[in-house]
Amino acid sequence: MAVGPGTLPEFFPVPGIRLGIASAGIKKPGRKDLVVFELAPGSRVAGIFTRNQFCAAPVTLSRRHLSLASPRYLLINTGNANAGTGAQGMEDAIACCRALADQASISMEEVLPFSTGVIGEPLPVTKIVNALPQALEAVSGDRWAEAASGIMTTDTRPKGASRQVEVNGRTVTISGISKGAGMIRPNMATMLGFIATDALIAPDLLQSLASGLGEKSFNRITIDGDTSTNDACMLMASGQYGGPEITADSPDLAALRDALEQVYLELAHAIVRDGEGATKFVTIDVSGAASQQEALDVAYTVAHSPLVKTALYASDPNWGRILAAVGRAGVSGLDLNALEIYLGDVCLVRHGGRAEDYSEERGQAVMDREEITIAIDLKRGDVRETVWTCDFSHNYVTINAEYRT
Amino acid sequence: MAVGPGTLPEFFPVPGIRLGIASAGIKKPGRKDLVVFELAPGSRVAGIFTRNQFCAAPVTLSRRHLSLASPRYLLINTGNANAGTGAQGMEDAIACCRALADQASISMEEVLPFSTGVIGEPLPVTKIVNALPQALEAVSGDRWAEAASGIMTTDTRPKGASRQVEVNGRTVTISGISKGAGMIRPNMATMLGFIATDALIAPDLLQSLASGLGEKSFNRITIDGDTSTNDACMLMASGQYGGPEITADSPDLAALRDALEQVYLELAHAIVRDGEGATKFVTIDVSGAASQQEALDVAYTVAHSPLVKTALYASDPNWGRILAAVGRAGVSGLDLNALEIYLGDVCLVRHGGRAEDYSEERGQAVMDREEITIAIDLKRGDVRETVWTCDFSHNYVTINAEYRT
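The joint structure predicted for all components is written out below.
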């Protein structure tokens, strides 16, 4: 049902980063539900977290620890989101971090916890703690594919990306995994991303990259407009690539940023492609905006419109619905007669109505494809933003309207 | 499929207001697709219109005429929305108004046009003009039920309300009809409301009532978040009730306002009950807000959340989805641990998680009903807002994902 082949790449191991997997039996016995990232000393980490105010204990704790220490471990569990668990949830998250810290002879603040899965149920701390030795004993640099599967909840397939790029005459490796497909009761299929590189990156630059790249990828995807309580996207840089520290002034920064951006985008897009019931991968490209805010308002209004999304499901080049969505996006003084809307390279709307040169055949050909681009040129500025989403199908409803048994 | 019985009331005729119906063959031959309201001289009219910037010619023209003259006729056609029709669309709307004005010996500005139906196709002016005599010849005060059917497009049933109230020792009558069920390609099932009364209401007060009552009813319903290009809700007051002019200081104003409010609410709710694929009528009541804006932000975020709406379809008391929607409503500094969420009178959420005294049985009993109230007390102020919506079902997708034949 997902869009596109979604094959995992061959992962390049990232020097300084090792992964471990375990079965803690958090929800399903025997399932790989615990993943650890082990970071060599000197590694730097930056990330972005959910903006949802209903925010799980692990998110609060990870944020806190990140501000206090350089992380040595990321501890990820599925099967339980430790969300909606109040004060007890915070204690439980702390207990897991402390247990790992004890086993690794580090301090608790050097562990970042991440949880995803059932909400409102207490984290099974004992099960997690008991599985830590298993997770830690066989850490290795080439367990990326297993980790990609290990962080899945409602995903139908694992998601990963891996590249190498020349920086300062040396090879830099970037590997990453992600998860997230929507929210299913009682699970919250949190959006998570973990990207690691052996580049040696100045701390401020690392945060700037994590924020900027995360913003333009993970924060530009939407399946149904809902954001989870546990979303996070972390960038880990071990610094072991063998070359000088990369700063904002480095000539090869552009090449590094481009490669990171490709990885971030692949991982973010993979989440959309695996969206619940998705049959279309849709790019909504808004250009000619007067500000970032209005570009995003337009893009998200179109991306969230149930009428546009059901039309996409129907492969229906319904310009009226797209224009109506643009018209209600709240852009002050928008001239509907000035803007243009394209489906792929076919002009659909011009002068406030269907383009005179539009042909049903050409428009239909675009909509029949699995990958569709809706391009909206507002013609009132030069700001551009892109958002990615999928369609609304019967399966979306089926998946999300589970009856209690 | 719609929610509740939806029976039309017995309509009270409104002195000074007569209705006419015709078949113009705009889209389907033989169908009643033209409705006129004839207003006695001295009648006053006020209304609210769509805020969608993609706004149809008739809306622009009605607004303009309303500012220039006291309307004598409302001219409503179905089968064609005259939207996305550019300059030609405006000429066509004018031509229809002019034709009616000629036949009634009045000026064009005294006619308010309203259109709903197919978009992007030229208004069949000749057909409409040719049907005007038929519409005008048998105008009568008791054709409300026919008119309710005459303005339908994608509605599955006609919608009306009618009441009487004592004002200044006299009987005031209020009758109204509405339409709107969502948007179907290529039609836009515009939301329209027409409420008439024989009360004699001071002009400023009339506008204030039309805006205020419209705001708290028609502007508080949402099926899928999409707003049409042709939405309008008009209040016509013939002034013929036999008593003194009602002003902001009249002692009986409260009774009149209450009666009008009941009619507005019935008509607006009827639209939600007939929402595409609706199986639930849902009241989302947000109280304890610090401002109207945040109350509405929370209410609409919950009302538009596909995950909440599919849970409603599944009769699933999914507190996590409701809380996640509240959490992303953008309310600055919201304390998730302070708020409370009720399903009917069953407390579902307290202290940031499922209420300790919540029982699955009681929650399920509420969700199994067709009429559901979700009450959210933000505990940070004293502002309250209510929004009404319906669920997302498989049928919603089916209706809106029509394949081209």
